[in-house]
Design goal:
The chain is mostly helical and about 230 residues long. Helices cover about 60% and strands about 0% of the residues. Among the domains are: about 100 residues, no CATH class; about 50 residues, no CATH class.
Length: about 230
Amino acid sequence: MGESKTGSNTSIGVVDADKLQRLGVKKATAVRWAPTISAALKAGNVSEPRQVAAFLANALVESGMLEKLVENLNYKADALVSLFGSKRIDMDTAKKVGRIEGLKKQPANPEAIANIIYGGAWGMRNLGNTEAGDGWKFRGRGLFQLTGKANYTRFGKMIGKSADDLTTLLEQDEPAAASAVQFFVATACRDQAAADDITGVRKTINGGTNGLDEVSVLYEKAKKILGAA
């Protein structure tokens, strides 16, 4: 592997603290996460610069620049419907559980929100959430915000842990990174990234295109930093 032309005499495609900082990660956070992310990518055999760039761009957006490992469900009522669709949560329900500002100020109810948007027939079909409360229990965690009992179970089998075990493990650095790499490798993400299809990668990870603009900007920046041709 050659040397990056974009600075810091480090190998192309390799993730280090300097490169994370250049992507906008705080210095202390970058120092904390660089070795863990590098080890997870190596274990998953993800090294091609476009693939690493796509992984990082999505991980940074999903985790708030590596600052959070548990999904933030503090949604406004109107945002719930626009983000998840009226078939999963109608406006009347959204007004009861979502955040409302102004004169009728109301805090969001994250647990209720999770059980609605990740539960019911949709949650059972798409996430394997079969029991009441599974939406909240198996809400997004890890660098890719792994969501749903089925995804928790799939990753758990790889490391010899139960889905229940992962509700705490995914809030720790190594499992958080490993789960994201496992998802990246097990789905179409790696091939999509190799083909420079960041929209496809985003859809695979997010289930839609929420955050695509931010991901796209970080992806292009990461490609340059990582020495992608």
